[in-house]
Amino acid sequence: MSLSIGLLAKASDVKVPTIRFYEEIGLLPQARRAANDRRIYDQDAVRRLAFIRHARQLGFSVDAIRDLLDLSDNPDRNCGEANRLAAQQLHDVESKIAQLEGLRDELVRMVDAACNGQAGDCRVIEALAG
């Protein structure tokens, strides 16, 4: 089955410019070209884009996705690198969660300390300035 870039975009739920970008940076192999020079894709491209999209949703960097795709393309290799990449991403997500919890706590304090007077006496402005 041959797909145009538009059909690939619909099938994979990835926008056309993103598909072109992934080709440009090597995450997606360059498409075959039809006689009219249009890109032609197959089901492997759909599967690969689904892999990339899911990895991006999980917050993996482009470099990490490149490494994961390399492992996927070479199924006989040891998966230790995939485990390391997943553990690193988990650590990064947990760090972001901790940072967001700190931000939430600070915002709660700001909202709880809010005043109803003039901006010069505003606790929110004071907290941001300090």
Largest sheet: 2 strands, antiparallel
Average pLDDT works out at: 91
H/E series, N to C? HHEEHHHH
Distance between the termini: 62 Å
Summed up, the domain count is 2
For the biggest β-sheet, the strand order reads: 1-2
Query: Pairing-aware structural class of the strands and helices?
Result: mainly alpha
Give the overall shape.
elongated
> How many separate helices?
6
- Rounded to an integer in angstroms, the radius of gyration calculated over CA atoms is 23 Å
Poorly predicted regions are none
Assess the beta-strand content as a share of residues: under 5%
Tell me the CATH topology of the largest domain: Multidrug-efflux Transporter Regulator, Chain: A, Domain 2
Please report the total strand number as a whole number: 2
Could you say what the CATH architecture of the largest domain is? Orthogonal Bundle
Report the top-level CATH class of the largest domain.
Answer: Mainly Alpha
Helical content, roughly? 55-70%
What does this molecule look like?
With 130 residues, the chain is mainly alpha-helical. It has 2 domains: 1-60, Multidrug-efflux Transporter Regulator, Chain: A, Domain 2 (Orthogonal Bundle), CATH 1.10.1660.10; 78-130. Helices cover 65% and strands 3% of the residues. The protein has 6 helices and 2 strands. The chain has helices at 5-12, 16-24, 43-57, 62-73, 80-112, 123-129, and strands spanning 32-33, 39-40. It has a two-stranded antiparallel ribbon with strand order 1-2. A hairpin with a 5-residue loop joins strand 1 (32-33) and strand 2. The mean pLDDT is 91. This is Transcriptional regulator. Residues 1-71 form the HTH merR-type domain. Keywords: DNA-binding, Plasmid, Transcription, Transcription regulation. InterPro entries: DNA-bd_dom_put_sf (IPR009061), MerR-type_HTH_dom (IPR000551), MerR_fam (IPR047057), Tscrpt_reg_MerR_DNA-bd (IPR015358). One of its GO terms (molecular function) is DNA-binding transcription factor activity.
